[in-house]
Amino acid sequence: MEAPVNHSRSSRTADRPRVVVTGMGATTPLGGSVAQTWGAIRSGESGVTKLETDGPPLPVRLAGLLREDPTVPLARCLYPEPHEQARMARRLPALLDRSQQVALLAAHEALTDADLLTSSLPSRVTEVDPERLAVALGSGVGGANSLIQAHDTLHERGWTRVPPWAVTRLMPGGPAAAVSIEFGAQAGVHAPSSACASGAEALWLGRMLIQTGRADVVIAGGADASISPVSIAGFAVIRSLSRCDDPERAARPFDRDRDGFVMGEGAGVLVLERQEHAQARGAKIHAHLVGAEVSADANDWKLPDTERQVRTLQAAIADAELTPYDIDHVSAHATGTLAGDAAEARAISRALGPACPTVTAIKGHTSHMIGAAGAVEAIVAIRTIQTGVVPAVRNLEQLDADIEDLDVVRSAHREQRGIRAALSSSFGFGGVNAVLVLTA
Question: What residue range is the signal peptide (predicted)?
Fold first, then answer.
């Protein structure tokens, strides 16, 4: 284990407000809620399915698709009357990109869980000054599919037929803006777009907004829904996607025979709150976000930098004023790529060394939800702390030799009571690194 990096800012944590998680929401290929997603992980399920749509020839026809069209449950969440729900369910695909729809679904669940929404529809946020309520919601790709659709319409039918919502649907900041508009967050709307680290970076940013006094509550997380022939071809041509045609076995984090990730869609949202604000309103507290760090490799678009990952892990632990021996569990990014999983395993081993916490990775269950991944994985890390159950890595049949130094949970879930602190790491294309530290 290497000596932790000494960051002077960690000495100032006593002067900063503590940040807690009071609400969680998720819509994933495993289910339309946190409970369904966690239950499916506990049951060992996979959200990967075969793509049955017509289209150009592709080397990969697997993806992690939502189990239910998001327009139907979203209309039920947002509109009071059955006739209005039916009408809006038909209109929502034209008004909102799919990434915006899943962001709203997850945000609605998270705010409901935090007991911050009125019971009557349309729901409104209560007990928070709108000027103290912010949004930090990342997306790796945003409305890329809406851009493709608008492009096709332009060439096939002319510019006058391009829909008036084309621009707002394709905006990378669209999911964050949709949440801000729907729930009246006026303290700022922030939309990190840092590839696969977008959701985790949004949580880092949300914590910063609270600690610098700019907000009391932040709706934070990530959303992406950009599965298309273009996105699949783009990832396939750089050999990032698994070529396995078996949906049950394609996503294999840390496995010796892994050959890439499976692309997915979804959203994860957490309500971050200043601890004093949460206590004053009697809110339940799921977890504390005690540390966070982001950094950049500034080196390569695709290849990870183990040294920068080590320093980011160490800095997050230092920011939490903990030591490696205080970390009992790691929720790894581990997408299933050869280089990525090996680099991350080396980084965890070097940063934590003989502390040897349990390690898991959930993308064998969920697929890789790009900008939503870090937020959903933070939620799963919190459920791991709460329940003392560490999910097994799905499809891990033979551990890669480069990863044997880690205590990776395989074959069966492990009971681990009394988890004090957990790390949740995210690493994205463009050399983006984001690490969160969560405690009970």
Answer: none
Q: Could you give the domains of the chain?
A: 20-287 (3.40.47.10), 291-439 (3.40.47.10)
- Residue of 108, 288, 329, 368 marked catalytic: 368
pLDDT, tens digit, for every residue of 163-203?
999 999 999 999 999 999 999 999 999 999 999 999 999 99
The residue from 196, 244, 288, 329 that is catalytic is 196
Whether the model clears a pTM of 0.90, i.e. scores above it, the answer is yes
333 in active site? yes
Positive or negative, the CA dihedral 191, 204, 241, 66 is negative
Instruction: Starting at the earlier edge strand, list the strands of the sheet with 266-274.
Output: 189-190, 133-138, 217-224, 266-274, 19-27, 287-296, 432-439, 421-428, 329-331, 358-360, 407-408
120 pLDDT more than 90 = no
Spatial distance between the Cα atoms of 195 and 198, rounded to a whole number of angstroms: 6
Bridge partners for 241 per DSSP: 261
Q: What element of type H or E holds 276?
A: helix 275-280
Distances (CA, A) of 238 to 265, 302, 429: 20, 9, 12
Is 368 tagged catalytic?
yes
Dist. CA 88–CA 75, nearest whole Å:
6
Can you tell me the distance from the alpha carbon of 410 to that of 398, in angstroms, rounded to the nearest whole number? 9
Q: Is the pLDDT of residue 255 over 80?
A: yes
Is 356 part of the annotated catalytic residue set? no
Which listed residue (108, 286, 329, 333) is catalytic?
Answer: 333
**Element holding 280 (H helix, E strand):** helix 275-280
Residue 4 has pLDDT above 70, yes or no: no
If you write DSSP's letter for every residue of 184-220 in order, what string do you get?
A: T--S-EE----GGGHHHHHHHHHHHHHHTTS-SEEEE
* Rounded-to-integer distance, Cα 208 and Cα 43, Å: 36
Q: How many CB atoms lie within 10 A of CB 318?
A: 22
